[in-house]
Amino acid sequence: MKKYGILVVDDSAFMRRAICQILENDPLFTVVGIARNGLDAIEKVERLQPDLVTMDIEMPEMNGLAALDHIMKTFPTPIVMLSSFTKEGAKETVKALELGAVDFFLKDSLIKNQAENSQINEFLNRLKEIIEAKLPKVSYEKRVIETKTSTIFDSNQLQIQRASKNKRLAFDLVFIGCSTGGPSALKAILPYFPKDFPVPIVVAQHMPSGFTKPLADRFDSICELHVKEAQNGETILPGNIYIAPSGYQTQFEKKLDGTVQFIVNHQEDAKKTMFKPSINISLTSAAPIFAERLLVIILTGMGVDGMEGCGQVKKHRGTVFVEAEESCVVYGMPKAVLEAGFADGQFLLSKMFQQIMAVI
């Protein structure tokens, strides 16, 4: 049985021992090396060529962010950050995901719950899924500037439809769903919308509770449009990018005056899902409200969340674009939508923004 080789990077001897013990207790993993700081990690990634790296953020000599940035530019390797659940830790984790980290896991959930198998099993299963997804060894920059394109839909057809509507805007909402690899993919799209972009944008990114606010704050600092977490009862308005808050489900409700507001709550009675926010739940709510005036973009992500929701979007004559396999970190969610027959177009990440602008 083939074992997956993991490089464990942490300046704490206690954390290195704890993570190594967790990994070595699973027959599928073997620790091929440890590193005490970023410089050590860079050298060992190139020499040992691990299947995956677990990376601490705060380390002496070179921190995890600097090491991550260097590795992703020179020797791209799947990297999972081990983060602290603090305000500063959340900000740094968001930055790491933007730089190309595949995923992250909270240290406290591993160390404080070692007696509970659920958290450990979730950690190990996520590592397995990431490795078995056979992530393409391609840097973020190459994903964005790649010129080869893959399409199954002629966007001119949508432009003709737009012209037939007396030059009205073709869409009233742009909805973007993503998971693994999503923050770096969003960086290739969101900052390019001009400040006068006339359609509100809603983003559903799978993240643990407490991490979507730093994500919104980070994008607000680099985007022309205002970026914020969606709030319960808030009216959806142009000029804004709304991030669906983690730990909750975000749905839509049309008011008597014709405006649309967010319904953000725990949705305990909703269809059971492991994701909060769930793309399926959001799209199932949005589809009948916005109908043919809804544009959905499904970016990189593990699993199939979004497939059922896109089915509802197509049932109500909306439009769905998915990211092409060549630029995805994980071609799970886009593939599921495409294979179900719900995608109107498939585009590389480097082409997605211009395709959105072409049809708006």
Automatic annotation (TrEMBL):
Enzyme category, top tier: hydrolase
Name recorded for this polypeptide: Protein-glutamate methylesterase/protein-glutamine glutaminase
Main subcellular location of this protein, as a coarse class: cytoplasm
Subcellular location: Cytoplasm
Keywords: Chemotaxis, Cytoplasm, Hydrolase, Phosphoprotein
GO annotation, biological process: chemotaxis
GO MF terms held by the record: phosphorelay response regulator activity; protein-glutamate methylesterase activity; protein-glutamine glutaminase activity
Domain notes: Contains a C-terminal catalytic domain, and an N-terminal region which modulates catalytic activity.
Protein task: Involved in chemotaxis. Part of a chemotaxis signal transduction system that modulates chemotaxis in response to various stimuli. Catalyzes the demethylation of specific methylglutamate residues introduced into the chemoreceptors (methyl-accepting chemotaxis proteins or MCP) by CheR. Also mediates the irreversible deamidation of specific glutamine residues to glutamic acid.
EC number of this enzyme: 3.1.1.61, 3.5.1.44
Lineage per the UniProt record: Bacteria, Bacillati, Bacillota, Bacilli, Bacillales
Post-translational modification: Phosphorylated by CheA. Phosphorylation of the N-terminal regulatory domain activates the methylesterase activity.
Organism: Neobacillus thermocopriae
InterPro entries: CheB-like, CheB_C, CheY-like_superfamily, Sig_transdc_resp-reg_Me-estase, Sig_transdc_resp-reg_receiver
Modified residues (4-aspartylphosphate): D56
UniProt catalytic activity: L-glutaminyl-[protein] + H2O = L-glutamyl-[protein] + NH4(+); [protein]-L-glutamate 5-O-methyl ester + H2O = L-glutamyl-[protein] + methanol + H(+)
